[in-house]
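Bit of a strange request maybe. I'm writing a small parser for structure token strings and I need a real example to test against, not something I typed by hand. Could someone generate the tokens for this chain?
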Amino acid sequence: MTRFKRIDLSKVRTTSIKERKSKVGIQDFAGVYDPTTKSLSQFIDSLPPILVADDFKNVVRRVVDARKNNKPVIVMMGAHVIKVGCSPIIIDLIKQKIVTAVAMNSAAAIHDVETAMWGVTSEDVADNLMDGSFGMWTETGEFINGVLTKAFHESDAGYGEALGDALIQKNAPNLEYSILAAGISSQVPVTVHAAIGTDIVHQQPSMNGAATGELSFRDFRTLCEIVGGLTDGGVVLNFGSAVILPEVFLKALTVARNVGHRAKGFITANFDMIQHYRPQMNVVQRPTLDGGSGYSITGHHEIMIPLLAATIKDVIYNDGR
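Reply from user aminoacidic:
Good idea to test on real output. This should exercise your parser:
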């Protein structure tokens, strides 16, 4: 005889599964992809309409609808997007008029310029930090800081516009890989938002703080105007900026609403490898409280950005057939 009392399960009451409210049914199960009969967008449609798979499909559809209705689709991005090779994807979305504006941090601008001018970017930070050579690359600093200083004194161009123009004027050897240049060529604004002290060009003798600050400020004002058009159907996609762009976006949205733009009823989506506090609050949640929707989709940029772009294009193509 056991020392301890045990519950008598014969007293348990059960209920028919037919009376249960179930969250998942076979109608929700994934479809099997047949490449001979299905397009990419049909494959995405076959994903279970559950959790993030459903969110992904909603984001795709909202981007497609935004462009059909001439609403803005703004891409905000950190430097990692370029470092993992996704520049051609962003450039194609610009050229296809799917993305109507790009806002990047200034680290992304550095990678964009290095790629366009010299075909390489991204150094071994840990190794170069040991001897103080990290970021001390003459050509990068002199090109970017020189362009900003010249534009500061001679034009009213913003940070992104000045760099894009300069790359085109220099006929950069790898111009086709430049998001900044694509913006100029396609008349799509590409704004650059600097935090002084965060980038390698800030630590070099050619750095001009007044020029960097002023041209970044010009781009902030441009972004404020763009954000003002997000009313009722616009889309904001944040790719991998954990701090700078979420903070800049929140202030731009505040300015837009303060001067009379409604700027409500849009959707946002944060795509990143992990979900950080600022993108969650300043991109996904706070801006969409009054009539919008926010999505958080986790995954590696080198997979998720091409997948998102390809699906959007496939839906547009098949909708137009």
